[in-house]
Amino acid sequence: MATEPALEQTGLQGPAAWEEEAEREQVHGLGPWRLGLRRLRRNKVAIAFGILFLLLVAACLAAPLWADNVAKTGPNTNHLSDTIQVDGESVNVVALDGVPIGPQYLKADGKFFMGADRNGRDIMVRLLYGGRNSLLIGISAALITTFLSILLGTLAGYFRGAPDVVIRALLDIMWSFPVIILGVALGVALALGGFQFWFIDISGDSLLIPIGIIGLVYVPYMARPVRGQVLSLREKEFVEAARAQGAGPLRIMFGEVIPNLASTILVFFTLLIANAVLLEAALSFLGAGVRPPTPSWGTMIDEGVDRIATAPHLTIVPGVMLVLTVLSLNVFGDGVRDALDPRAKVRLEH
Amino acid sequence: MGRFVVRRLIQMVLVMFAVSVITFLIFNVIPNSDPAVRMAGRQASQSTITEIRREWNFDDPIYIQYVTTMKMVFSGDLQSYFTQLPVGEEIRKGLPRTLSLAIGAALLWMFVAICLGLYSAMKAGKFADRFLTIVALVGISMPVFWIGALMNHYLGFKLGWFPNGGYVELTEDPIDWAYHLILPWTALAILFIGFYSRVLRSNVLDTINEDYVRTARAKGLGERQIMVRHVLRNSMIPIVTLWGLDFGAVVGGGAILTETVFDLQGVGQYAAEAVGQLDVPPVLATTMFLAFFVVLMNAIVDILYAYLDPRIRLQ
Amino acid sequence: MSDAQPLLSVDDLRVSFATEEGVVQAVDGVTFDLAAGEVLAVVGESGSGKSVTAMTLMGLTRSPNAKFEGTAHYKGTELIQASEDHLRRVRGAEIAMIFQDPMTSLNPVQRVGSQIVEQIQEHEGIPDQQARERTVELLERVGIPRARERVDNYPFEFSGGMRQRVMIALALSCNPSVLIADEPTTALDVTIQAQILQRIRELREETGAAVILVTHDLGVVADIADRIAVMYAGRIVEQGTLDQIFYDPQHPYTWGLLGSITRVDRPRPERLPAIAGLPPSLADRPDGCHFRPRCPHEFAECSKVPPLEARLDGQADHLDRCWLSVEEKRSKREVLPGEIGLGAKEGARA
């Protein structure tokens, strides 16, 4: 510890020099975000899975590239009676007994990389386009949930009293509906007619329906913890200080409370996307989510399970993609949670 | 304790009422097209639609509609316009199957999760713990219907180790009943084992650092005794509540998907088939009853929790 | 002090922990003896290593990140390197501990009586009824009214002071020879503190157990201690009998401690007396005398670690770690012998 140079530089003696040194150290201390980032960087596994997720997203976004340049077909184009060249031989895309071909990988120049489905559609192309839809739904729904949870949780937790009672009652009742049941009920109710209210007119086939349903359904799961945190933050000194300075409730909510919720929200958000993607798959599997022929991983698994005996690849392929996506989100989200956790874990052995 | 129970039960009834209102609103009031058209389902004739409008009082004010709907649901007269079968009957037939699936899976996942969670906590930070964490994460990342379908296909159909779906009545043949349920139980449990083992692990690790565990050690108690009597017992309390809540959620949710994949013909599959056909009456009824079940389970869990944690009970 | 073999003999104890910030040397060479029936007060601020020392005697600091050196001999056996099995037999029955916070130190969902019976049964296999009787007697002895009814209460049904009495009863239940009290009154109201200390003193007289009283409060110590060890930054800086420490303190840190006690009967000082500077970071201690950065009397020699030695003629049991000569100490010290608090000496401190 460089104490001697400090003494010489400042000309101060003993204790006073130490006090100054200590003050200087505190100014350069790492805040909780930087500390969290540093801890996250050390977690190689979480980073790896985070990158995996980004790669999967990128692949899905590149769906048109694949469709146009490699597979040379669209996600909804049937090839029932077509043939392709495999190792110089002509093979039926869909065999005469109705069984579609399995994964060709690169054997047919990338066409039907993952095989075909019973309508002769290219699974790989559908997989990527379906991924776009599944991810779009997952992320949008997560955003909706987050927005509504922050809104409701902060209103309830900050103002207490009547708004709190009402919001809590609402959340409790929503909580009573198992997620799938509620999703299914809303899906069925909205599928046949869509949603018309005021100037809003959404058709039953629109992706906005599953997005809205999934976004709504998860609100109690996030709003409650948010409310709890707001309740405790409210009592903290810095909020009182802001109030003493004359800040109104809106200012306090946006300036003090919500920024401190950030770490909770961040952790929840990653896990929300994962769950939303899974819920979309479940709803689509049951027929209450994405409506065919629009591809999504859920609808693809649904179609696959019907024919699992003869063409298992129809089930396996979208499932593996889904599992990888959700897993990477879960592992990364776990890593984020560990990194932001104030309880420092003792790591080194010596 | 008695007063607490009574209060909680009253609360339960109120929530059930609210649930019925919300369910009603979802199906009959969502602003889109004509509820009668929706109720009639796909490919319904004009006469059916008019008939429905009359039967359900769709031209009357909302509260009359609500009362009518509730009367239809609870009286057993509710019928699916698609299959012409009475909804109440079908639900009653499917209930024991759904419960068999749910209870078996719940016991399985609880037992395995406790073992894995405890083991993970004891070996915290070491390879075994990290490995089990990844396994658990994979478990919660898999859609239950997907893994169920694959298990059914490969273990049931291809390898023939297990029956290829279907359900045998418990009263007929208990062994066969269990044999048919092993795969569904496992498929359903995988997701929850993943989740619960991690929650337990985290609770145990928290509890181990509590001051009273340090006191127990200072008393000279052995590690195993400390683990079981102090750590596990205290970590379990929040787990029990979660378990109860999830049990309700399983009956209302996970069961739907698993039953469909394994063709168990329970309430869940009944609902799933109705959903596929956009057949409203069965979905309406099952939604309400499954939500009721969850509310009931929540009340039971709260009461159980009060019993386990004297701090709640005695205040 | 008796000439008999000391009950507990700690020799050059060192304890270090590996943390995210580096290796922390919590205890840096602590040596002391404890005679049967005597009360030794270990005094120091947070971070001085006093609690770690106490807990290490019972093996409660063992973990994969902890490293121990030195020895602690108790009744012929060595404790620091002893096996878990052996330690388990010592804990509770030979050496017992009273912890700082009785609210969190008792199992919240287990009845109080049952927690005491548990310890009794662990060490003596007596019939349940007998163990229960003994528990009720113990509770009565520590001053809990209606003990026979309250033995089946839960911890949250007691007030803070009563809970601490329960802990004392628990500690005494197997008649230990050494009682370690780790800041037993810190978590309690000031009014209750005196009662608890009184009770500890009475029980010591009744049972003849030796007591190690760990505290940061010198005031608490005056009534009850036979000997005092003052700790700073992991080392004992002064050690002696109660009279020696209060009437002839030899170490600048001890002066600081004695001087910082405020007195009601003296004119209020302009500033609250405090020792300038901050305690050193646990992971990064200065070379030489640990107290040097805060010591107004430090000089060149202090860059070498002063050994803990008896520097006064005829007082082999009064040890300190300060290079100053005895005359310098007596002239420089800021408190009057036998007096506590400031205001006694002019120009004592800047």
- How much helical structure, as a percent, in the residues of chain B? over 70%
Number of helices of chain A: 14
Output mean pLDDT of chain B.
82
What is the straight-line distance between the termini of chain A? Answer: 23 Å
- Main sheet specs of chain A: 2 strands, antiparallel
Low-confidence stretches of chain A: 1-15, 24-28, 342-350
- The CATH architecture of one domain in chain A comes to Orthogonal Bundle
Radius of gyration of chain A: 27 Å
Which percent range describes the beta-strand content of chain B?
A: under 5%
Molecular structure report:
The complex is a heterotrimer of chains A (350), B (315) and C (350). Chain A has 350 residues and is mainly alpha-helical. Chain A has helices at 3-10, 14-27, 32-42, 44-61, 63-71, 123-159, 161-176, 179-191, 208-217, 219-234, 237-244, 249-286, 297-306, 313-340; strands at residues 83-86, 89-92, 195-197, 200-202. Chain A contains 14 helices and 4 strands. The radius of gyration of chain A is 27 Å and the shape is elongated. Chain A starts with a helix and ends in a 10-residue tail after the last helix. Helix content of chain B is 79%, strand content 0%. The longest helix of chain B is centred in the C-terminal third of the chain and has 40 residues, at 223-262. Chain C is an alpha/beta fold. In chain C, 30% of the residues lie in helices and 21% in strands. Chain C has helices spanning 50-57, 84-90, 102-105, 112-123, 128-141, 147-150, 160-172, 190-207, 218-221, 242-247, 252-259, 326-332; strands at residues 8-19, 22-34, 39-43, 66-74, 77-78, 95-98, 178-182, 210-215, 227-232, 235-241, 309-310, 319-320. Chain C is globular and about 65 Å long. The chains are: A mainly alpha (350), B mainly alpha (315), C alpha/beta (350). At the A-B interface, α7, α8, β3, α12 and α13 of A face α1, α6, α7, α10 and α11 of B.
Describe the SSE topology.
The complex is a heterotrimer of chains A (350), B (315) and C (350).
Chain A: H1 3-10, H2 14-27, H3 32-42, H4 44-61, H5 63-71, E1 83-86, E2 89-92, H6 123-159, H7 161-176, H8 179-191, E3 195-197, E4 200-202, H9 208-217, H10 219-234, H11 237-244, H12 249-286, H13 297-306, H14 313-340
Antiparallel strand pairs in A: 1-2, 3-4
Helix pairs in contact in A: 1-2, 3-14, 4-6, 4-14, 5-6, 6-7, 6-9, 6-10, 6-12, 7-10, 8-9, 8-12, 10-12, 11-12, 12-13, 12-14, 13-14
Chain B: H1 2-29, H2 35-40, H3 46-55, H4 62-75, H5 87-122, H6 127-141, H7 144-158, H8 174-208, H9 211-218, H10 223-262, H11 267-276, H12 280-308, H13 310-313
Helix pairs in contact in B: 1-4, 1-12, 5-6, 5-8, 5-10, 5-11, 6-8, 7-8, 7-10, 8-10, 9-10, 10-11, 10-12, 11-12
Chain C: E1 8-19, E2 22-34, E3 39-43, H1 50-57, E4 66-74, E5 77-78, H2 84-90, E6 95-98, H3 102-105, H4 112-123, H5 128-141, H6 147-150, H7 160-172, E7 178-182, H8 190-207, E8 210-215, H9 218-221, E9 227-232, E10 235-241, H10 242-247, H11 252-259, E11 309-310, E12 319-320, H12 326-332
Parallel strand pairs in C: 3-8, 3-9, 6-7, 7-8
Antiparallel strand pairs in C: 1-2, 1-4, 4-5, 9-10, 10-12, 11-12
